[in-house]
Specification:
The chain is α/β, with parallel strands linked by helices. It is built from twelve helices and 46 strands.
């Protein structure tokens, strides 16, 4: 280790004057004064390990976790035959895992997690006979998951003592080997966040001691194993010790097996974001210790089991984005420990009962996008801890209950798109923490309250109601003294003014088009984004459509359809639309700090490496949501720096879905004549006119290369005939620093050797090249990209 012995570490001196057995972190044997343990964890050390470490022949424990050691893992560690504990996690070790480590036959714990290790998992690891814990998570390991015969292990019997196996957050591929079922002592298994495919092997059912299993964020398909699906023997339930089961974010289909009710100790069950269908089995009510049940984003149908009241410990129940029907069972409202409830985007119907007030611990309720009817029950006031209430997109009738004003902790209230009538209760003025209010698209009348936080809400919170009046900032008429409303007169004024405004805007558009010669077929479909300010001072962006271009109306409809379906923190929010015979316009959220293009190419703006990686992680999250977070995938088709806007915190928000194509369910590509921007469009766009989610992946890869190099995709390299992708590919890995944007290098102060910086940039550029491969089938999907980019982000200081 390259350590200055004069440095002070945690208040203790490493000095040549002091006996080394007195140094902090060094443990020596009493009789022979030989080093038997080194605990140098969390000391801020850096550098390469010294090969002389292999001379500490009596060493039984080596713990170097959470430092900045780099380079290869020393093969000399394999000479430490007495070593029982090897912990190198949370460093910057790179390269392959040395096979020689298997000579440490006394090893009980080995953790190499959160480094930069590559290559496969050595098959020689099967030689370990005492190993109880193996942690290789959060690296860049590749290849197939060990088969446990001839891969990790040549003889599975040698791993009979293994209790914990963590290999998550790598790039492992292939299938889960069936021999994993032979590891009878296994208590915890985490294979999540890889690229594992195929089915879950039935042999997992042999792991009767398993307590936690995570297989989430993979590419698993088909059904849960027969052993889980079948009947549970009376003599012994299946995996009785299991407390945590995560199968999220895969492609599992089939029904939820009824025998899942045998997992009697289960506390958390995550089956979300799969293709599961059929009913929720009644046997799930046997899981009386269940605290969290996540079933959202599947194809589950039917109703919530009436026996759900048996889950008295349930704190989180999420079943949004499914095909649920029927009324919500009365028994659900008796779950007094429930904190988070989301039943949105289903087809639940019927009324809400007065009994909903029994859920005293509830903090978040989302029942939006259903078919609920009747009045909002006054017993809602019993939700003393409620922070979020979303009842929008239903058919609730009657008045807004005054009792909502008793929800003192309420921060978010959305009752929009219902049939509510009467006045807005003044009791809402007492909600001191209310930040978001949406009462739009109802039949409300009377005066809009002025007190409390109402002065912070915009007119959008109240639009499309029958006869509201009040302060001019809400863009409603002033209230008359006698309480009479002039709705007919107001509508008459609107009918007159809207066409006049439209004509004025149209004339302005035509004049500007003529001035700039933009009336040809090659003109942009969308022109001249305007900035505006509402009466309440909120800035907006108004995107006006050029109606003189062929296909313009179709483009506008496509963009409206896309925006109507989505809502995400990394996507620019659409506030409203304006449509008539003379005008098409979108009213958008104004994003104050401009486009990524401005920040990349203006001399007045600078972004360091971490900021750039964070921005691209934001973009990846947004595109992943478009591709995988919708019932039907949405393809952006025009990813480029000018379509990525930055807010005041430099959080990226993707905009401009003007040529987005909404793909039909289970349809991977569609034909189009519309192309994105030259340099960013995938090869298959131009050659075959094919639009797919993999085209966005290509554009993202080019964008990633551009963000790091500061070069546009075409014509900015030294050779104008070479593309950005070719230029980067020819320059790495030897000349990474030669192609990095000089703005990044100027802002680089720490790490004088630039070794860490060089390796991180190389990872980013390699990811960009992987995303932008010529063949669509060779490109990864946005889920995988998002995981990889977030890992890179976490490795940055």
């Amino acid at each position: 280790m390259e350590v200055d012995p004069t440095n002070t570490i945690k208040g203790n001196n490493w000095t040549v004057e002091a006996n080394f057995c007195e140094w902090i972190g060094v443990v020596c044997s009493n009789r022979r004064q030989r080093v038997i343990a080194l605990d140098l964890s969390h000391m801020g050390l850096q550098g390469r390990l010294s090969p002389y470490l292999g001379n500490l022949s009596l060493l039984t424990s080596l713990d170097l976790r959470n430092n900045s050691f780099y380079g290869m893992i020393l093969i000399e560690i394999g000479h430490l035959s007495r070593l029982k504990e090897l912990i190198l996690e949370l460093n910057q070790f790179e390269g392959n895992i040395p096979h020689i480590l298997t000579q440490c036959q006394n090893l009980e714990v080995m953790s190499l997690a959160t480094n930069r290790l590559t290559g496969g998992i050595p098959r020689e690891f099967g030689a370990f006979r005492k190993l109880q814990q193996l942690n290789l998570s959060s690296n860049d390991l590749q290849g197939q998951i060990p088969s446990f015969r001839g891969s990790i292990s040549q003889d599975i019997d040698s791993l009979q003592k293994l209790q914990k196996l963590y290999i998550s957050a790598n790039n492992l591929t292939g299938m889960i080997p069936r021999t994993i079922g032979n590891m009878s002592s296994l208590h915890k298994l985490d294979i999540g966040s890889n690229q594992i495919e195929g089915e879950i092997p039935s042999e997992i059912g042999n792991l009767v001691n398993l307590e936690r299993m995570s297989l989430g964020v993979n590419l698993l398909t088909r059904e849960v194993p027969r052993e889980i699906r079948g009947c549970i023997p009376k003599e012994m339930g299946f995996l009785k010790r299991l407390t945590f089961l995560e199968l999220s974010d895969n492609a599992l289909d089939g029904n939820i097996p009824s025998s899942i009710g045998g997992l009697e100790r289960l506390q958390r069950l995550y089956l979300d974001n799969n293709h599961l269908e059929g009913l929720i089995p009644n046997e799930i009510c046997n899981l009386t210790g269940l605290g969290e049940l996540l079933l959202q984003q599947n194809r589950i149908s039917g109703s919530i089991p009436k026996c759900i009241e048996n889950l008295s410990s349930l704190q989180m129940f999420l079943i949004s984005l499914n095909n649920m029907i029927s009324v919500i069972p009365l028994s659900l409202w008796g779950l007094q420990e429930l904190i988070f409830l989301n039943l949105s985007h289903n087809s639940f119907n019927g009324r809400l009962p007065l009994e909903i007030g029994k859920m005293r611990a509830i903090e978040s309720i989302d029942l939006s996008w259903n078919r609920l009817t009747g009045a909002i029950p006054s017993s809602i006031q019993e939700f003393e801890s409620l922070a979020l209430l979303n009842l929008s997109r239903n058919s609730f009738q009657g008045s807004i209950p005054q009792s909502i004003g008793h929800l003192k902790g309420l921060e978010f209230l959305d009752l929009s798109y219902n049939e509510l009538s009467g006045m807005i209760p003044e009791s809402l003025e007492a909600l001191a923490f209310l930040q978001i209010l949406n009462l739009s698209f109802n039949k409300l009348s009377g005066e809009i309250p002025n007190g409390g936080h109402f002065g912070n809400f915009s007119a959008l919170s109240f639009i499309e109601n029958e006869a509201l009046c009040g302060n001019a900032i809400f863009q409603v008429p002033c209230c008359k003294v006698n309480g009479m409303k002039s709705r007919d007169k107001r509508l008459h004024i609107l009918y007159i003014t809207v066409p006049i405004v439209s004509v004025i805007l149209l004339v302005l558009i035509i004049c500007l088009l003529r001035k700039h010669g933009a009336t040809s077929e090659k003109a942009l479909v969308l022109m001249l984004v305007y900035k505006g300010t509402l009466a309440n001072g909120i800035d907006i962006a108004v995107k006006v459509l050029n109606l003189h271009i062929e296909g313009a109306l179709k483009s506008f409809d496509a963009e409206c359809d896309a925006f109507r379906m989505i809502r995400h923190r990394n996507l620019v929010k659409v506030i409203s639309t304006c449509t008539n015979a003379n005008l098409r316009a979108l009213v958008l959220q104004y994003v104050p700090c401009g486009s990524l293009e401005k920040w990349l190419y203006s001399n007045n703006y600078n972004l360091d490496l971490l900021q750039r990686v964070k921005i691209m992680a934001n973009v990846a999250t947004a595109i992943e949501y478009l591709h995988h977070g919708q019932p039907e995938p949405i393809v952006h088709c025009d990813l480029k720096p000018s379509n990525i806007l930055l807010n005041k915190d430099l959080v990226a928000q993707v905009c401009d879905f003007g040529i987005a194509k909404i793909l039909a369910e289970n349809k991977l590509e569609t034909q189009t004549r519309t192309l994105g921007t030259i340099g960013y469009i995938a090869p298959e766009y131009g050659s075959e006119g094919k639009v797919s989610t993999k085209g966005d992946v290509y554009s993202f890869g080019i964008l990633l290369l551009e963000v790091i190099t500061g070069k546009k995709p075409i014509g900015e390299m030294s050779n104008a005939d070479i593309s950005l992708r070719q230029w980067v590919g020819a320059s790495i890995p030897e000349r990474v620093l030669d192609i990095v944007d000089t703005k990044i290098l100027r802002m680089k102060h720490e790490d004088p050797t630039l070794s860490k910086f060089n390796s991180i940039v190389l990872l980013i550029l390699e990811l960009g090249l992987e995303c932008s491969k010529d063949l669509p089938g060779e490109r990864m999907d946005m889920k995988t990209i998002m995981v990889k980019l977030n890992k890179i982000k976490l490795s940055l200081p």
